[in-house]
Structures are given as C-alpha cells and as structure tokens.
C-alpha cells in the first residue's frame, strides 16, 4: 500500500488574508462542505474569538462527514496559566475536535517580539499542547518561522518542536512563514528534523514568496513529512500559500501517495477550484496547472496532430483525472464526461450513450458562453438538466414583474430608499398579482413571489436567503455590463443550495436566480401538480 499523506486546508484562515478576499459565514460553510466532499482530512474554519464571522461559524459549524473540523489559535500568553488564558478558553469552548496552535520557534522572535526568556516560550508551547490534550482535543502545533529559526539556531528550533511532541501533539507543522526558503534547504532541514521526530508526526506549511510553495511542500514530503497544509488556488497573504489544487494531483498522480481523496474524488478538482473563485467573485486563472481552462489547450498545427496520435506527447496526465478536458482551440471539443460527472454529483442517473447528453452538453456550453457558471451553482445545473429530461413540472408561470425604487426624506428627516415589487404570475391555472415592499429590489421581488406562491406551496415559507453575490462579466461595457448573480439559500433543516442568473439587467439576473431558488425547493420536496 502506498504511503499516506494527510491534507490540511487553511483556505478559511490563510486564504481570508488575501487582499480583496472577505469570506462571509455562508462562504465558509459552503467551502468547508465542498472540501469535505472532496476528501480533505482537516478543514480549518478560522480563529474563534478573532472576529464576528469566525465566531458565527464556530457557533454553528458545518456538518462534515469525513474531514476533521479544526480551530486555529495560539499558545497561552506569557504570565498566564493555560486554564486562565482567554485564547485557549475560546479554542476549547468552540468544541472543534482538533485545534492547531501557533508557537514561535525562532529565537530572534522570542527575544524581540515576545521579549521573554527562551525557556519560557518552550514552556508555553508544552503547557498549551498538554492542556488541549487534557480537554480531549487533537492538539497540533504550527511551528512559526521554523526554517528561519532552524537556520539561525537549530538546537533551539528543535527544542521548541520537541516540547510539543513530548506533550502529545498529533502534528508538528514546520512553517516557512515568510516564504523565503528554497526547496533544497527545505529538503535538507526536514530530513534533519525527521531524524529526531518521526515523519508521520511532521507537517509542512509554505508560502509562495519565491514561487516555490508547491515545490517546497513536495520536497518536505520527499524528506518524510506526512501532513501538508495549503489553500485552494493558493490563496493567502502577500504571494499566497501552497496551492492544494496543484499539490493534490502531484502527490497522487506523480508521486504515488495515498490521500483521503479517491480517484473519483480527484475528478472534482476543477469544480471545487472554480467554486472558490465564484465565492470570492473573481475570474478563474485559465493558466492554472491541472485545473485551468488552458491547462490542456492545444492550438492548431503540429501539436494537435501529435495529440491525436498520442495525447502523452503534450499532456502529462489525462485531463479527465482532475475533472478537466482537452481543448483543441480550432474546434473546442465538447465535454460529455464533465456533464456526466455533474449529473452524477446531483443524483441524476442517465446512460452515457443517451442522446440527451449531447443536447445537455450543447445547452450548457451555450449558457456558459452567455455567462452562466454552474460549478458554483449546483441547484441551477440540476434544474437545467432535469428540465431537459422532462422531470421538472411547470410549478408556475411568470407573466411580468415591475420594481419601483423611491429615494426620499421620511417624516423624521432621514434619507431612505424604499423598494416595491409587483409580480403577475399564473399558478395552477389561477392568475395572481401581488405587491410587496422590501429592503431593496431583490428582497421586494422575493417577498412578492412568495406572497403569491406560499398559499399554493406552503413549504416555500421554509426558505431564507443566506448570501447574494454580483459579478460584472463585461466590465468594458460600464454600467451596461452583463452581470451574473449567485444566490445561496437555506431551508429549516440547514440544507443549502446555490442558484445563478445572468442578464445585462442586474434585477433581471437576480429575479432569474430567485426563480431557481423556489423551483429547486419544490423539486427537492417532490411537489407534484
């Protein structure tokens, strides 16, 4: 059996430090659940007590089936006992089964940043790990600035890590915190550490400041570490962290390691990479290794001729193994396998040779050309597919809608903006017209739709919107740009789903996404006409 490498995702903490990235609680829940489905071993939700978003997430954590939900924090403060340290108390009170604390291992930082005796720092690390263990948590240490510390004072850096090891830490992760270490240095230093602490207890955490985060992580694995930390798409402060999306297939397909991700799970790598991009409202990197749109793109000429004879000539792996597809730029091949995979994801069973698969491929390509993104909107994709298969009834028909926004001074002299929506629709043969106010046009439309539909479909009362994102698809068009709206919704059972709408009119795009929200709920409830 191949050696096992464990994967620890820090997207929700390290990734949140990326300039321009601000995860909501709904984002964190959705990304955690996607990582869980993929097969990641540890999902770090953030730092309890650090900000209201992380507090909200840890107060109502995602229901993970495979991954271990993990909290991040720091060692006890100088001069405090573990029992009386508010930071450690927050980590224990959040009830995450695993806790990773950061501790300093560079003597320079202990002297200058902490300003305490070096022996006290070692004691802080050991006390904190032992306290977490005593409280029934899986305790882990992030050895901050370990490589800088080792190069300056190897004995002290090792003493810090050994203290955590002897106190019972499950994982001791060596951190290249400023990203300045090169692969040959990582390989040499990790090999030296592995002579003192077993590799099956060691992890690696790298930053990308020299464009070597992935290479450094793989070098550490070669030298014995068996836990790799990283983020989706390499998010992180400064130049980013090690990119798990590149590390995962390299570990499995290139180096032959076993991970918690199955071969079938690996085929969802493109989807989860793009889901993250949709969540943070940015365009996917088309040149990203393994998952980029151009990762297996070939232009007409000799390359295409060679590919047709033997794909291995210019493709280092089969694109389908990571959920990607070959792209011949002169013909733009369709992706039947991708569509079949998406159908399986949402529980649609259809033979691969069914002619309707070709129709669905063409429909998806047309709609994605128009701006729809189904990797991040699984509910809208399921509706699209099942409608083509004739499995979704016409629950209602929209005849028209109108939204009026009024901005004025109220009786108290405050400037307010009011939204009013009028919706005309047909439900079970009956004409309905409703008028509703809302906190903005989208809320007014939502209220108007449900005002008309709930008497016929009472289960729609159970929905509330948890997230709303708008992305400009054609920025060169200014205020006339085509927009894509993503709406995340949740029912009373905590189940979430995401829908998408696209239009040059942001209200129209929002309305289309709202319609899918309601139709998806009715479909999942198996409501019949």
UniProtKB/TrEMBL annotation:
EC nos: 2.3.3.21
Pathway info: Amino-acid biosynthesis; L-isoleucine biosynthesis; 2-oxobutanoate from pyruvate: step 1/3
Entry-linked Gene3D superfamilies: 1.10.238.260, 3.30.160.270, Aldolase class I
SMART domains: LeuA_dimer
Top-level enzyme category: transferase
Pfam families xrefs: HCS_D2, HMGL-like, LeuA_dimer
Keyword annotations: Amino-acid biosynthesis, Branched-chain amino acid biosynthesis, Isoleucine biosynthesis, Transferase
InterPro entries from the UniProt entry: 2-isopropylmalate_synth_dimer (IPR013709), AIPM/Hcit_synth_CS (IPR002034), Aldolase_TIM (IPR013785), Citramal_synthase (IPR005675), LeuA/HCS_post-cat (IPR054691), LeuA_allosteric_dom_sf (IPR036230), PYR_CT (IPR000891)
Superkingdom, taxonomy of origin: Bacteria
Reaction(s) catalysed (UniProt annotation): pyruvate + acetyl-CoA + H2O = (3R)-citramalate + CoA + H(+)
Keyword Flavoprotein among record annotations: no
Record-annotated Pyruvate carboxyltransferase domain positions: 5-267
Family in the record: Belongs to the alpha-IPM synthase/homocitrate synthase family.
Name the record gives this protein: Citramalate synthase
Encoding gene per record: cimA
């Amino acid at each position: 059996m191949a050696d096992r490498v464990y994967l620890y995702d820090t997207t929700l903490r390290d990734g949140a430090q990326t300039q321009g990235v601000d995860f909501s609680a709904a984002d964190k829940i959705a990304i955690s659940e996607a990582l869980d489905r993929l097969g990641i071993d540890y999902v770090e939700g953030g730092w309890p007590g650090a900000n209201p978003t992380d507090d909200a997430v840890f107060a109502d954590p995602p229901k993970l089936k495979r991954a271990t939900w993990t909290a991040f924090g720091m060692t006890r403060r100088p001069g405090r006992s573990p029992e009386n340290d508010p930071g450690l108390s927050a980590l224990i009170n959040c009830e995450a089964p695993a806790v990773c604390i950061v501790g300093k291992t560079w003597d320079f930082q202990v002297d200058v940043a902490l300003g305490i005796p070096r022996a006290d720092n070692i004691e802080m690390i050991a006390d904190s790990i032992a306290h977490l263990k005593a409280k029934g948590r899986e305790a882990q240490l992030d050895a901050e600035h370990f490589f800088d510390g080792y190069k300056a004072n190897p004995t002290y850096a090792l003493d810090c890590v050994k203290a955590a090891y002897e106190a019972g830490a499950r994982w001791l992760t060596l951190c290249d915190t400023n990203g300045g270490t090169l692969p040959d240095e990582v390989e040499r230093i990790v090999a030296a550490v592995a002579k003192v602490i077993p590799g099956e207890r060691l992890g690696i955490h790298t930053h990308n400041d020299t464009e070597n985060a992935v290479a450094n992580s793989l070098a550490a694995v070669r030298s014995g570490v068996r836990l790799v930390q990283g983020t989706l798409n390499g998010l992180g402060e400064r130049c980013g962290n090690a990119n798990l999306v590149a590390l995962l297939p390299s570990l499995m397909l290139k180096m032959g390691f076993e991970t918690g991700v199955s071969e079938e799970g690996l085929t969802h790598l493109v989807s989860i990479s793009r889901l993250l991009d949709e969540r943070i409202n940015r365009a996917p990197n088309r040149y990203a290794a393994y998952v980029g749109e151009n990762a297996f793109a070939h232009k007409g000429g000799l390359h295409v001729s060679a590919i047709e004879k033997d794909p291995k000539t210019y493709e280092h792996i089969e694109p389908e193994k990571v959920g990607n597809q070959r792209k011949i730029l002169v013909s733009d091949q369709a992706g039947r396998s991708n569509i079949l995979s998406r159908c399986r994801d949402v529980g649609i069973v259809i033979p691969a040779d069914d002619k309707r698969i070709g129709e669905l491929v063409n429909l998806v390509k047309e709609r994605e050309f128009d701006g729809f993104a189904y990797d991040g909107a699984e509910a809208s994709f399921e509706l699209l597919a099942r409608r083509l298969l004739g499995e979704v009834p016409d629950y209602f028909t929209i005849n028209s809608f109108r939204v009026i926004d009024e901005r004025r001074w109220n009786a108290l002299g405050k400037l307010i903006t009011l939204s009013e929506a009028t919706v005309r629709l047909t439900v079970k043969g009956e004409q309905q017209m409703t008028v509703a106010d809302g906190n903005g046009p989208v809320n007014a439309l939502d209220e108007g739709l449900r005002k008309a539909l709930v008497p016929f479909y009472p289960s729609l009362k159970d929905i509330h919107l948890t997230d709303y994102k708008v992305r400009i698809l054609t920025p060169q068009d200014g205020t006339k740009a085509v927009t894509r709206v993503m709406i995340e919704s949740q029912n009373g059972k905590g189940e979430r789903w995401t829908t998408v709408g696209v239009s040059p009119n942001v209200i129209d795009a929002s309305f289309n996404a709202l319609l899918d929200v309601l139709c998806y709920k009715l479909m999942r409830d198996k409501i019949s006409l």
